[in-house]
Design goal:
The chain is α+β, with helices and mostly antiparallel strands. It has 2 domains: 109 residues, Roll (Ubiquitin-like (UB roll)), CATH 3.10.20.70; 321 residues, Creatine Kinase, Chain A, domain 2, CATH 3.30.590.10. It contains 14 helices and 14 strands. Strands 6, 7, 8, 9, 10, 11, 12, 13 and 14 form a 9-stranded mixed β-sheet that branches. It has a 5-stranded mixed β-sheet with strand order 2-1-5-4-3, with helices on one face. Strand 1 and strand 2 form a beta hairpin. Helix 4 packs parallel to helix 10, helix 6 packs across helix 7 and helix 11 runs antiparallel to helix 13. It starts with a helix and ends with a helix. The mean pLDDT is 91.
Length: 447
């Protein structure tokens, strides 16, 4: 079947010269190789290998020394996912892309340190219960330029008349969208070519900030593939327009950051939404899932806020949750149950930054919900009013989040020991780099 899909793609796209073979690392960065058309068949024949360590590269692309020393940097056999074949419209030469996941050395099992494999293991546990997650994402990003006279510092594309940053992003502003129309139209065109189902595109709260939403999918894996490829498309098209599209969690200290809100519901084998019981409150199973998400949120924080900059976003008044809580139609809570049609009853998880790996974020969120369902946990009382008035309960510093993640029984049981160890090694190496650098603020204060 896979070869048939490749054959059909080649037949439909006879001009393609290059294939970009994409492997996601633990940060969600897209690694891989370029292959000529004549070599793409080996990706489908079990002949394409990459080092297992490629899944655990840090944000600067460096290996984890401990992992390399253990196995001599051995290769794993990669699996192609033909449903992700698509043209790359921004490439100079006729180019296509395909997503792969990492297998073990023999190619007979998934590699537990591959983020796509981790998500699949969670989905398999849902399937064993006769449940299918339906997932959609909302992703915020900034559209910026770089000022080379200011050492490459990012500059807003939305400005006041005196050249200073705009006071706000003109939330839902149609005129502001029209001003950005050439780039936004190009993004929409690229998404259409790559079969990425964009729902809405709006201006957001902060200057130069936008939000893009994807239609929900009854395959969580497909939803994550689409989310990752959409971020790639946005960045690539922006470069063609001499702009920087940034999914950095907090690019400007005094302004709101970029979040990634994950919506999900669960279908039974008859296609019924098991969160819907015909009431505004939702089913008992909904509350079990909410309880699991609340109970495991601190354990998952290193995934949902994976970088030192991620925690800059976690400040009061910035719609970035500080506590593990939930509420109905309440955007100040970590978990929101949107109102509306009961048939669309769902959970909106609002903690993750736009810098989070979508595969791991969705895996952690769904695993948390599953733990609540399996244990029939009772949800705490929903928050009414401003959840910012609630005492913070989530790890508020990067090191704390990594420590909770490393020691978590939940992470080991639901996401796997290999992922737990490799992710911890990656984050500790990145943290060491920041810990050993002296900042300009320190020179300003103490020199």
């Amino acid at each position: 079947m896979s070869d048939l899909k490749l054959d059909q793609f080649l037949q439909d796209n006879p001009d393609i010269e290059i294939f970009e073979v994409i492997l996601h690392d633990l940060n969600g960065n897209q690694r891989g190789k370029w292959l000529p058309r004549s070599q793409i068949s080996k990706v489908f024949d079990g002949g394409f290998k990459m080092p297992l360590s490629a899944c655990s590269l840090d944000c600067w692309g460096r290996d984890q020394d401990e992992l390399v020393e253990e196995n001599g940097d051995t290769d794993g056999i990669c699996e192609a996912h033909p449903e992700t074949l698509a043209r790359v419209p921004w490439a100079d030469k006729p180019t296509a892309q395909i997503i792969i996941s990492m297998g073990n050395e023999a190619g007979d099992a998934p590699f537990g340190g591959d983020c796509r494999s981790v998500l699949q293991s969670v989905l398999d546990r849902y399937a064993a219960l006769g449940l299918t997650p339906v997932v959609a994402s909302e992703i915020e990003f900034h559209l910026l330029t770089l000022d080379q006279d200011k050492f490459g510092q990012p500059q807003h594309t939305q400005r006041a008349l005196d050249g200073s940053p705009a006071l706000g992003g003109q939330t839902y502003g149609l005129d502001t969208m029209r001003n950005a129309a050439p780039l936004m139209d190009a993004i929409a065109d690229a998404a259409k070519v790559q079969h990425l189902p964009i729902d809405t595109l709006v201006t957001e709260f902060g200057p130069s900030q936008f939000e893009i939403n994807l239609y929900h999918q009854d395959s969580a894996m497909r939803a994550c593939d689409q989310g990752s490829m959409l971020k790639r498309a946005i960045r690539s098209v922006a470069r063609q327009h001499d702009k920087i599209a940034s999914f950095m969690a907090k690019p400007f200290a005094q302004e709101v950051g970029n979040g990634m809100h994950i919506h999900f519901s669960l279908l039974d084998e008859q296609g019924n939404n098991v969160f819907d019981d015909g009431t505004d409150q939702g089913s008992d199973l909904l509350r079990h899932a909410v309880a699991g998400c609340v109970d495991t949120m601190a354990d998952s924080m290193a995934i949902l806020a994976p970088n030192i900059n991620s925690f800059r976003r976690m400040t009061p008044g910035c719609f970035a949750p500080l506590s593990a809580n939930w509420g109905y139609e309440n955007r100040t809570t970590a978990i929101r149950i949107p109102g509306g049609d009961h048939r669309a009853m769902r959970i909106e998880h609002r903690v993750a930054g736009a810098d989070a790996n979508p595969y791991l974020a969705v895996a952690a969120i769904l695993a948390g919900a599953l733990s609540g369902i399996e244990r029939k946990l009772s949800a705490p009382e929903p928050i009414e009013g401003d959840a910012g008035d609630v005492k913070p309960t989530l790890p508020h510093f990067w090191n704390d989040a990594i420590g909770v993640f490393e020691d978590s029984d939940f992470i080991g049981q639901y996401l796997g020991a290999e992922l737990q160890r490799n992710f911890t090694l990656c984050k500790r190496k990145e943290k060491h780099e920041f810990d050993t650098r002296i900042t300009a603020l320190e020179y300003d204060a103490f020199l």
